[in-house]
Amino acid sequence: MSTKHEKILQYIESLPVGTKISVRQIAKEMQVSEGTAYRAIKEAENSRLVSSIERVGTIRIEKKKKENIERLTFAEIVNIVDGQVLGGRDGLHKTLTKFVIGAMQLDDMMRYTDAGSLLIVGNRVKAHQLALTAGAAILVTGGFETSEENKRLADELQLPIISTSYDTFTVATMINRAIYDQLIKKDILLIEDIYVPLEDTSVLRADETVQHFHDQNTATTHGAYPVVTNQNKLVGMITVKDVIGKPSTEPLDKVMTKNPIAGSMKTSVAAAGHRMIWEGIDLLPIVDEDNTLKGVISRQDVLKALQLAQRQPHNGETIDDLVKNEMKVLGEDDIFVEFKVTPQMTNQYGAISYGAFTTLLAEAGAFALKRHKRGDAIAENLTIYFIKPVQMESKLTVRPMILDMSRKFVKMDFEVYNHNTLVGKAMMTFQLLER
Fold first, then answer.
1. Are 409 and 374 in contact (CB under 8 A)?
2. Helices marked H in 337-421 — which ranges?
3. Which H or E element spans position 320?
4. Phi-psi region for residue 393, left (φ > 0), alpha (ψ -120 to 50) or beta?
5. What is the DSSP letter of 1?
6. 91: helix, coil or strand?
7. What is the pLDDT of residues 204-253, one digit of tens each?
8. CB 291 within 8 A of CB 3
9. Judging by beta carbons within 10 Å of its beta carbon (0-12, 13-18, 19+), is residue 146 exposed, middle or buried?
10. Chain-centroid distance, C-alpha 188
11. Nearest CA to 238 among 249, 228, 248, 247?
């Protein structure tokens, strides 16, 4: 049976794209409190089912598949450029296919402007009209308006006219940045990409007994199970260790681990894996905001996903990617890493930033561990106890040295040289990932 929260989300998803919604309307329609309605709308926004726009309200937008996440809706454009909608509000849910900068003659401009485009242009009223007729939306820069006739045409064609106080170059940069960020987000593995859904998950009920655990264990050979209520609310986790020596008639709610650690759909796989290793758990239940079980992930699922992700090309470059691109691993037994500091890796003083420096050390340490055939590892903590300013364009040499290694942890010392001058020293602890 669905919870109130789930029913509201299902109701929002069933609404036609472009429908305007409000907390009060949802509360009245679904007969729930405004607080419940508000929380559901916020989750719908996180799930990209709706978009909230200042001075416009919340509208139902087309939910984009992850592979098309870099395609923005006009509603998202309004938020990116702090825009004001002059007309065509009913078309804010539509997705733009490309944007055109109108810094050319009118005829040339129209050659590039077609249905689904966003024309970025100043106060050229005739260009606004022709673009609308061609099926394109308009982004008017410089805080300018458009004609009343164009506003009526935009309403009729359901094509937004958006006004922003930013100039054309700044707006194009902001939209490009948003698309670029979406490309990076697309590469990030989330739990929703790899989890085993509830219908394929073996669960036990809180009112069942230890005998039910043994029966389930015999049938599935799994060593751990989520414990749920009849409404699929997560109330505990139970493992083989919990039932050792317990009578078969003992209720599960007496022996299970209550208030277990759980994850959400939007948690990254890397964060989930780190927490599972740190907490020593092999199975992580996945819940929604109402603590309803959605599925599970295992430690094996996480490790496979992370190892696969390392081999996949990325569309958008992060700081980590920039650092890795400048690294050259040399040496056989005692490896060292050569590295060039680029302008993107510097702080306001032109010296290497702490973020780039720590990424460099973590990656150099990971390379050293792989050479020792210890597989993948996660950096647990880092202490930098000596660093001199390192200017851009400097060529560094990083020398990692393993100080101590156990089955699960590695302590490593680092020395960083700029030519022959020592410019940095650090110590880092890694936790080894089990294969």
1. no
2. 354-371
3. helix 319-325
4. left
5. -
6. helix
7. 998 899 999 999 888 888 889 999 998 899 999 999 889 898 998 999 98
8. no
9. buried
10. 6
11. 228
Q: Taking each helix axis from N to C terminus, what angle separates 23-30 and 4-14, rounded to the nearest 10 degrees?
A: 110
Radius of gyration of the chain (CA): 27
CA distance 209 to 277: 29
What 3 state SS string does 410-435 have? EEEEEEEEECCEEEEEEEEEEEECCC
pLDDT level of residue 301 (50, 70, 90 thresholds): confident
Distances (CA, A) of 46 to 9, 37, 39, 58, 139: 12, 14, 11, 13, 25
Judged by DSSP in three states, 236 sits in strand
Looking at the DSSP bridge assignments, the partners of residue 405 are 410
CA distance 396 to 426: 15
Q: What stretches of 229-332 adopt beta strand conformation (E)?
A: 234-239, 257-258, 283-287, 293-298, 327-330
Q: What is the pTM of this model?
A: 0.50
Tens-place pLDDT, residues 9-67 = 888 888 888 888 888 888 888 888 888 888 888 888 877 788 887 767 888 887 655 44
Which domains occur in the chain, in start order?
Answer: 1-63 (1.10.10.10), 64-187 (3.40.1390.20), 192-308 (3.10.580.10), 319-432 (3.10.129.10)
Q: Is 92 exposed, middle or buried (0-12, 13-18, 19+ CB in 10 A)?
A: buried
Instruction: Lay out the sheet containing 117-121: strands in order across.
Output: 84-87, 161-163, 137-140, 117-121, 98-101
Residues 286 and 195: beta-carbon distance below 8 Å: yes
| Residues 374 and 392: beta-carbon distance below 8 Å | no
Sign of CA dihedral 162, 164, 167, 173: negative
Q: Which two tokens stand for residue 244?
A: 């050792």
DSSP 111-176: HH--TTEEEEESS-HHHHHHHHHTT-EEEE-TT----HHHHHHHHHHT--EEE-SS-HHHHHHHHH
CA dihedral 220, 221, 227, 230 (to 10 degrees): 10
Distance CA 111, CA 203 (A): 60
Q: Which two tokens stand for residue 247?
A: 């009578």
Give the span between the Cα atoms of 269 and 271, in whole angstroms.
6
How is residue 352 annotated by DSSP? B
